[in-house]
Design goal:
The complex is a heterotrimer of chains A (about 300), B (about 325) and C (about 425).
Chain A lengths: L9 H6 L1 H7 L1 H7 L2 H33 L3 H4 L14 H7 L2 H34 L5 H10 L5 H14 L6 H25 L3 H9 L4 H12 L1 H17 L2 H5 L9 H7 L8 H35 L2
Helix pairs in contact in A: 2-3, 4-16, 6-16, 7-10, 7-13, 10-13, 10-16, 11-12, 13-16, 15-16
Chain B lengths: L3 H17 L3 H5 L13 H36 L17 H7 L2 H32 L6 H12 L6 H12 L4 H8 L16 H26 L3 H9 L4 H29 L3 H6 L11 H10 L4 H29 L1
Helix pairs in contact in B: 3-14, 4-14, 5-9, 5-11, 5-13, 9-11, 11-14, 13-14
Chain C lengths: L1 H27 L10 E7 L1 H4 L4 H12 L3 E7 L2 H14 L5 E4 L1 H9 L6 H7 L11 E3 L2 E11 L2 E4 H6 L9 H13 L5 E3 L10 H12 L5 E2 L2 E2 L4 H16 L11 H9 L3 E5 L5 H7 L5 E4 L12 E2 L1 E8 L6 H12 L1 H11 L2 E2 L13 H12 L1 E2 L9 H16 L5 H13 L3
Parallel strand pairs in C: 1-2, 1-3, 7-10, 12-15
Antiparallel strand pairs in C: 3-13, 4-5, 5-13, 5-14, 6-10, 6-11, 8-9
Classes of the chains: A mainly alpha (about 300), B mainly alpha (about 325), C alpha/beta (about 425).
């Protein structure tokens, strides 16, 4: 497919064909004539636009709904550009200290989970990648499969456990809980990432007098930044969007996070549709910004992490 | 992506003198973390053997206390007669397992979960791959690719509750999708996507596909950047068509990622609860009943925690099989 | 190396942010312990988010003023998750002292031993329970008191009905079916009746299906045991099936919830619905132009007896594990008192659980007064209250009912199947 075509501008594409033609038939197929390339480009753009409709339309609809009044959301025929365009829903949310608190909590918890998960996962991944030790394989099986227990069944024993440990309705409780859910993924990815790095790197550092930890911290971690960032973003998103445990493990609204705030708008008798949509748009912005900011790390990072896992 | 190689290069440069210092012999014996004969005595050799445990200890403590203990409790529950609601539960052996495994609803749920999960994962993979290939095209400028990449990333941003509510709105008999269908003359009176027993499973699967493909897309996109260009050049020289290159170069190179992601996605999708619960609640009738909704109803609608735990343990066992395969696959690659 | 530098910067910023946020958080987390003999009790409920902001808190403030030695901590959660949260709390022994309850959960919580026996508390506190409109009992002991009741009368869209040539709201089943059929025949996206049957929240079975049985004086139980194959239930189910086959019911029924029902009505797409009075304000606010009226639920033709009106309650109970039952009961007493109960029912647009209380109709919609008269003329009926696993009973019935409606089985077979699965629960 198109991946194989050389990264050439129109000019170089025009310059190359003669040589390529001489090389092989396949090369002609790839570079193609300018006309063919143009057709191909149009095709790719059409396909991308179709995909973008599939991916983006529901989100666009959400955005448009957040500017509507509640009845207009259910109007038939549906309106896209709203008649009663208003920022009311956003104003309501952003002027409500309780809801602002949900956002702050979400940031605090998600950031803390992300950093803590990364540190713990890097340490564990280092062990899995650099050492052979008894129970390594069974440990791996456990780490992969614990993810499979339906969280809903863990709810009750887990709740009791958190109460016993005195972690109920605390940030620490939420952070530790999310770490348990994000660690398996993070360890799997980080192990794969470290496996791609030659062992010479850290062993050489050890000969220089570094401890194993020093080798990890000073040599492996800096090289692995892309992988770390990619795992970090995913961890952040899991923590940011989690609902069930966030609700169960907190009891007062000053400890609660954005997904609960959204759920609180779904009342017994009616939903605040526009506020739900607005809150969810507001909630997604930080994640989107993170993605935009880290895009190059993110994409580079997953490469190395997964290719050779 | 661009800056990693220079860093790596710098680091390995730094390490070159040390290699000369004679660590090659050590490397040959790597595996069991070898001690350095120069700097460490026998006692520290023993310490070194403990090193990996030190590294995994934070993980181990967390997982044992916060994951294995509750899972252990769930397994314990599964051998008791009605825990939680009953203050003096009795040990009943495998009775619960017999009950659950012979329950017709469990079979329905298992079947639906299989269809839902396999279709979702398959579609995530295909869509993720197609989108990743499209986004990797050299035909567009980096800026426009970044725009598309961001749009394609969007479905991943929202909490499941909102995804469910949003799609209920879109798929409503009077919603926008039906409006488009009717306006285009594709349907007379609109389609009850979620309420029609013959369509509901397909509809929730579609929603899940929408919500989950970015995970694959982003990772595969990353994978595509990592494929060395010379592999394609070599294939070109051999006269491979682009289709052949796709099958013989791209796919094999992406295989490890694909396998890891499929494993994670299989496990994650098979326990998808909120999305199904909030769109159909397992209905209409029972056509979207999944293991997750089945388990939930046992626990919180019927208060049969033992049965719910049993069902959870069965799910755990099923995914353990998957996990063993996965670890074995990893071992082969070490 | 710029990546490393940037990464370090990001890490530093992140750590700083976390530190800052946890400082903010640390400052504002409340201090639970109190040394001067003050008692703090918790009230867990889903009502506060349902009511206009601050109003419920104002009532609680009043209680605290009257009882200076008691502090009440309001714990509010989303309705849809309240039950799980209560259940987890009761399993771990950390249930709040006073809890908001739905009649459908009482039996299960009481059996589990997590609710205190209120009859005993009445005695201990010398409370006169004669003013309570109703109590939910199990084996002769009260476990829940309905604080306010939401009745479910019939709403009709006057304009749509008039357009279809129906001049007055239907009063019996025949008229109702006729009206629904005529409204559906208007075409476009209008339908006669809306029937939410989602299995996620199966209370449509209670409010929109069984209500037909109760309205005509029928029952789904016989001596406390399920009796679904009797002629009352059969005729109601056959009746609804008839409307389904006529195409009088709005599309999407099998996944609709109460919240969807009201949106359909508000947007003028359905002629008739059976719905909670709590929605009057919402409908007015969202569609001020909609002309609608409310009336008692139609009964079988020629029925003259008392009409059962379905209702749902915000109930209240005391946790068995509470260390401050006396104080907890004080709060219950306060909420059930004549004045406070009137106020609460006014703000919730519901009817009071204290027989002496009367909602304030002065600022309210005229329809409220009308509904109050309907309420007083009929008798509140909800046979699901106090049944074991009642939500699951609704769900079991729902599944059979959906099969019946989609033509997979006959009415008789559906009811027999439901009867069988219900009998297993009693």
């Amino acid at each position: 497919m198109t991946t194989t075509a050389p990264r050439a501008t129109a000019a170089s594409a025009a310059a190359k064909p003669s040589r390529r033609k001489a090389d092989s038939f396949a090369a002609t197929e790839q570079a193609g004539s300018p006309v063919r390339r143009r057709i191909e480009k149009v095709g790719v753009i059409i396909a991308l636009c179709l995909g973008a409709v599939f991916a983006g339309f529901p989100v666009l609809w959400m955005l448009s709904s957040s500017f509507k009044s509640n009845p207009e959301i259910f109007a038939s025929p549906p309106s896209f550009i709203t008649k009663g365009f208003s920022f009311d829903a956003y104003v309501t949310i952003l002027t409500d200290p309780e809801k602002i608190r949900f956002f702050i909590n979400s940031y605090a918890v998600s950031l803390a989970v992300t950093f803590a998960t990364l540190i713990v996962a890097i340490l564990a991944a280092y062990a899995f990648s650099r050492y052979e030790f008894p129970f390594k394989k069974p440990l791996n099986v456990v780490i992969v499969s614990v993810q499979a227990v339906p969280p809903i069944t863990l709810l009750i024993p887990y709740f009791g456990l958190m109460v016993t440990l005195g972690l109920y309705n605390t940030y620490a409780g939420l952070i530790l809980t999310y770490m348990v859910f994000t660690l398996p993924y993070a360890i799997i990815m980080m192990t794969g990432y470290f496996n791609t790095l030659p062992k010479e790197l850290d062993e050489a550092a050890k000969v220089d007098g570094s401890s194993s930890f020093g080798a990890l911290w000073r040599i492996l971690v800096p090289i692995s930044i892309p992988g770390i960032v990619s795992v970090g973003i995913y961890t952040f998103m899991i923590a940011w969007n989690e609902y069930l445990f966030a609700l169960t493990l907190t009891r007062t609204n000053d400890m609660r996070t954005v997904p609960i705030g959204i759920q609180l708008l779904m009342g017994q008798h009616s939903y605040e549709w526009n506020e739900m949509m607005a809150m969810s748009i507001l909630g997604s912005i930080p994640v989107l910004l993170l993605f935009l900011f880290f895009q190059r790390f993110f994409i580079g990072g997953l490469t190395a992490g997964s290719v050779k896992s | 992506m661009t800056s990693a190689p220079p860093v790596a290069a710098a680091a390995s440069e730094r390490s070159t003198p040390a290699e000369v210092g004679g660590s090659r012999a050590r490397r040959a014996g790597s595996g069991l973390g070898p001690g350095s004969p120069r700097r460490r005595g026998r006692s520290s050799n023993g310490l070194r053997r403990l090193e990996p445990y030190a590294f995994i200890s934070p993980t181990a403590i967390l997982m044992i206390v916060l994951m294995l203990v509750p899972i252990g409790m769930v397994i314990g529950y599964s051998f008791m007669n009605n825990v939680i609601t009953n203050h003096n539960p009795k040990f009943v052996g495998l009775d619960n397992y017999v009950d659950v495994l012979t329950d017709e609803r469990f079979h329905t749920a298992l079947g639906n979960t299989l269809i839902f999960t396999l279709t979702s994962v398959g579609a995530h993979l295909v869509l993720g791959l197609v989108f990743a290939m499209l986004l990797n095209t050299p035909l567009l400028s980096n800026a426009s690719k970044a725009v598309f990449r961001t749009i394609y990333f969007l479905p991943w941003l929202f909490t499941v509750a909102i995804v469910a509510v949003l799609w209920r709105l879109l798929l409503n008999p009077n919603g926008v999708i039906n409006y488009v269908l009717v306006t285009l003359g594709l349907s007379d009176n609109g389609v009850e996507f979620l309420a029609d027993p013959s369509l509901a499973l397909a509809a929730v699967t579609f929603i899940n596909i929408w919500a989950g493909y970015p995970f694959f897309m982003i990772s595969l996109l990353a994978g595509l950047q990592g494929i060395p260009r010379d592999l394609y050049e070599a294939a070109t020289v051999d006269g491979a068509s682009r289709w052949q290159q796709f099958w013989n170069v791209t796919i094999p190179q992406l295989r490890p990622i694909i396998i890891s992601m499929c494993l994670l996605d299989l496990i994650w999708t098979s326990q998808q609860f909120a999305l199904i619960w909030m769109t159909t609640g397992g209905g209409p009738i029972n056509v979207t009943e999944m293991l997750s909704t089945f388990t939930y109803k046992l626990a919180f609608s019927r208060y049969e925690f033992s049965m719910a735990s049993t069902s959870a343990v069965i799910v755990l066992l099923l995914s353990m099989i998957l996990a063993v395969f996965y670890v074995r696959h990893q071992r082969a690659r070490d | 190396m710029s990546n490393v530098a940037r990464f370090r910067r990001v890490v530093a910023t992140g750590i700083a942010a976390v530190a800052a946020v946890s400082m903010i958080a640390g400052c504002s987390s409340g201090a639970p312990a109190d040394s001067n003999g003050k008692v703090t009790i918790e009230l867990a409920q889903w009502w506060e988010p349902e009511l206009p902001k601050g109003e419920f808190q104002a009532l609680i403030d009043e209680f605290e003023k009257e009882n200076p030695n008691i502090t009440v901590k309001l714990l509010s959660g989303p309705y849809a998750s309240t039950k799980e949260q209560l259940f987890a709390g009761s399993a771990a022994g950390t249930m709040s002292d006073v809890v908001g309850l739905d009649g459908a959960w009482v039996s299960d919580f009481a059996k589990q031993g997590s609710l205190a026996d209120l009859t005993q508390l009445f005695k201990d506190n010398k409370y006169d329970d004669s003013k309570l409109a109703s109590q939910v009992q199990l084996d002769g002991s009260t476990y829940m008191i309905p604080v306010v009741n939401f009745v479910y009368p019939m709403f009709s869209n006057d304009d749509l009905l008039a357009k279809a040539g129906v001049t007055a709201p239907p009063t019996n089943r025949t008229e109702f079916a006729e009206a629904a059929k005529k409204v559906s025949a208007l075409g476009g996206d209008t339908s006669g009746w809306v029937l939410p049957l989602s299995s996620e929240a199966p209370n449509g079975i209670q409010n929109d299906v069984m209500s037909w049985v109760w309205a005509s004086g029928g029952s789904m139980l016989k001596k406390g045991k399920p009796d679904l194959t009797n002629k009352d239930v059969t005729s109601a189910v056959e009746y609804i099936k008839g409307m389904w086959d006529d195409g009088s019911i709005a599309p999407g029924s099998f996944t609709q919830k109460e919240q969807d029902k009201v949106e359909e009505f508000t947007n003028g797409r359905v002629g008739l619905m059976i719905d909670s009075l709590a929605h009057i304000n919402l409908i007015r606010q969202n569609n001020p132009d909609l002309k609608f009226s409310i009336s008692a639920l139609p009964a079988v033709d020629g029925y003259e007896g008392e009409r059962g009106i379905p209702y749902a309650s915000w109930g209240i109970g005391v946790s068995e594990s509470s260390k401050h039952k006396t104080e907890a009961f004080k709060l219950v007493e306060f909420l059930m008192s004549k004045k406070i109960n009137s106020q609460l029912s006014t703000m919730a647009k519901a009817f009071p659980g204290n027989t002496e209380s009367e909602p304030d109709f002065s600022d309210a919609d005229p329809l409220f007064k009308e509904a109050f008269d309907i309420y007083k003329a009929g008798k509140p009926a909800n046979e699901f209250v106090g049944l074991p696993v009642s939500e699951d009973l609704m769900r079991q019935f729902d599944e059979q009912f959906q099969k019946t409606l989609s033509g997979d089985q006959s009415v008789k077979a559906g009811l027999e199947a439901a009867q069988k699965s219900w009998s297993a629960e009693f």
